[in-house]
Design goal:
Largest sheet: none
Radius of gyration: 16 Å
Length: 90
Amino acid sequence: MQIFQYILLVFLIVCAVAVSFSKRLLNSILIFMSYSLVMSIIWILLESPDLAITEAAVGAGVTSLLFFATLKKIHAIREEDEENHEQTGS
C-alpha cells in the first residue's frame, strides 16, 4: 500500500510540472483534471472521504467545466484546432 501512495505522489508532481510546460490550453485543463482525481484518491487513502468528494466534485468537475466553458466562450478551443490543421496541412 505504501508503494501505491508513493506512485500517486510522483504522478501528482508530474501532473503539476506538466501543466506548467503544456503549450495547449486544452491539454492543461485535462492534466488539471487528472491532478484533481489523483488528489481525491490520495484523500481517500488518508481516510478523509469528505475532502475526497469535495476535491473530485469541485476540482475535477465544476472547475474543469468552467475552464471548458471559458475556452469555448473566448473561442480558444476552435483556434487551437485551426492551428493544428494549418500545421499538418490537412
